[in-house]
Write a structure and sequence with these properties.
alpha+beta, 3 helices
Length: about 200
């Protein structure tokens, strides 16, 4: 069976391109070029990306924070034991760093976190000394009470939206396949009828 496409008009005669297609290749071509199927396919892909992005946000999130060494030099008013004031030059250097890990808990709607950090302070003048402050490991749980589990609800909503887009896209492909199948066999019947009529005329 063939599908004839008229492409241009040249010299007063129709120039035509004939494309021979079986049913399955014709269905695939129609599904790829159908405007409605293309729109629903883009919606399906967008919904798939949204679901993947939301699921990725439920994985452990790690953040690193660091303050580069800073330096401060100033003249400060320092109170003395006898109540007098003494202006002294102070020179300080400071830096800090920390790591923070957070894991969402979709079942409860809360989250668990761990952190560790260190900070340092160098005093160069008037007295030279160095101070360190560390928090080796801090573990905490953040759990809202008497509230809607937004994480679980949003995850369910994203899955439902993805499923809806998937069903609509598959349904559009089926509609295109059914319509093209109907047209294909209508044209085939018409062609066979024409061939039969031509044979009758010859006989």
């Amino acid at each position: 069976f063939c599908i004839t496409l008229f492409s241009s008009l040249m010299g007063g005669m129709w120039a035509q391109d004939t494309l021979f297609l079986d049913l399955q290749p014709a269905i695939r071509m129609a599904q790829e070029q159908s405007p409605n199927a293309k729109i629903l396919r883009y919606e399906y892909l967008a919904s798939h990306r949204d679901l993947a992005a939301f699921q990725a946000s439920l994985k452990p999130q790690i953040s690193l924070n660091a303050d580069l060494p800073g330096f401060s030099r100033s003249i400060n008013n320092i109170s003395q034991d006898d109540g007098s004031s003494l202006f002294r030059t102070q020179s300080l250097a400071f830096s800090s760093g920390s790591i923070f890990v957070r894991q969402e808990l979709p079942i409860t709607g809360g989250s668990i976190f761990m952190s560790s950090g260190v900070s340092s302070l160098w005093n160069f003048e008037p007295l030279e000394n160095q101070l360190w402050q560390t928090s080796l490991l801090v573990v905490g749980l953040n759990q809202p009470l008497f509230q809607l589990n937004e994480t679980q609800w949003n995850l369910r909503e994203e899955r439902m939206e993805f499923r809806r887009a998937q069903i609509n896209y598959i349904a559009s492909l089926e509609e295109v396949a059914q319509e093209l199948t109907r047209i294909f066999f209508d044209a085939l019947v018409a062609q066979k009828t024409k061939e039969g009529a031509q044979e009758n005329l010859i006989n």
